[in-house]
Amino acid sequence: MKILIVANWKMNPASLKEAKNLFDSVKKGVRNIKNVEVVLCPPFVYLPALSERGLASVIKLGAQDCFWEESGAFTGEVSPRQLKNLGVKYVILGHSERRKYLKEETDEIVSRKLGACLKVGLKPILCVEKLSQLKGIKKDIIVAFEPISAIGTGKAFDVEKAKSARKAIKNNFVLYGGSLNSENAKDYIEKAGFKGLLIGGASLKGEEFIKITKSVDLISKI
Ligand code: PGA
User: Fold this and answer.
1) Alpha-carbon dihedral sign for residues 219, 32, 59, 43
2) Which segments of the chain does DSSP mark as H helices, in order?
3) Rounded to whole angstroms, how far apart are CA atoms 104 and 138?
4) How many angstroms separate the alpha carbon of residue 219 from the centre of ligand 1?
5) pLDDT of residue 77
6) Which value, to the nearest 10 degrees, does the dihedral of the CA atoms of residues 22, 28, 34, 35 take?
7) How far is it, in rounded angstroms, from Cα 105 to Cα 9?
8) pLDDT for the residue 55
9) Residues 6+ apart with CB under 8 A from 157
10) What phi, psi does 107 have (nearest 5°)?
11) Residue 222: pLDDT above 60?
12) Which of 4, 12, 119, 203 has the fewest CB atoms within 10 Å, counting from its CB?
């Protein structure tokens, strides 16, 4: 599997026009990369339009959450099946911002969502900040290690400490996330041994995101 670079746009940008512009510039900028799969995770509302725009072979679409049922009376929710039918491949689950602001986003709920994604063939990316959140989680699930102190703070986690955390996580495919930029990104692959990155703030700046992707693409072996 290629190195994964996941862009978590969170609740940005403010308009479809801006979302299309960002998408188009990333698509153009990463078209020649070889060793990286880029996963763009815009807000739900932009997924259909971006999906129709056509994906470069290295780009996949992801969602930032989903519900655990396939259909029914669940006002305001989006099901894994609906995402799958739009051409979405990945779903971020259990992001610390959801765990913090939506109190019902417990480990149990996250694990239900995970099961629902797997059932329809979507690939979940499970965000954790501590090992206990991996209890009962199968080894083949993609995990994103995201220490709270590093998320959106500009203070990326120490590379050596990140490496220890990565070793403690027994899952086959572990990403690092938290205050990544084009200066520090490749250290987490090269020095800390992560198999990919989850990028928030820097994924909203097209050029910076492309720069990160290219810097990681140059690392041929992981
Ligand atoms: P950040 O966010 O890159 O802005 O720190 C990462 C994340 O929340 O996934």
Assistant:
1) positive
2) 16-29, 47-52, 80-85, 96-101, 107-120, 159-168, 185-190, 206-217
3) 23
4) 22
5) 97
6) -10
7) 19
8) 85
9) 147, 149, 150, 165, 176, 178, 179
10) -60, -35
11) no
12) 119
Pocket test for ligand 1, best of 12, 199, 203, 209 (most atoms within 8 A of CB): 199
- CA–CA distance, 160 with 156 (Å, rounded to integer): 11
Query: Token digits for 3?
Result: 């190195």
- Smallest CA separation from ligand 1 atom 2, residue: 200
Q: Is 190 designated active site? A: no
Closest CA to 133 of 85, 100, 104, 169: 169
| 163 has a pLDDT exceeding 90 | yes
pTM value surpassing 0.85: yes
Beta bridge partners of 85: none
The identity of residue 41, as a single letter, is C
Nearest to 20 by CA among 31, 9, 32, 33: 9
Over residues 64-101, the pLDDT tens digits come to 999 999 999 999 999 999 999 999 999 999 999 999 99
| Angle in degrees, 0-180, between the axes of helices 206-217 and 16-29, rounded to the nearest 10 | 30
How many residues in the chain?
222
Nearest CA to ligand 1 atom 6: 200
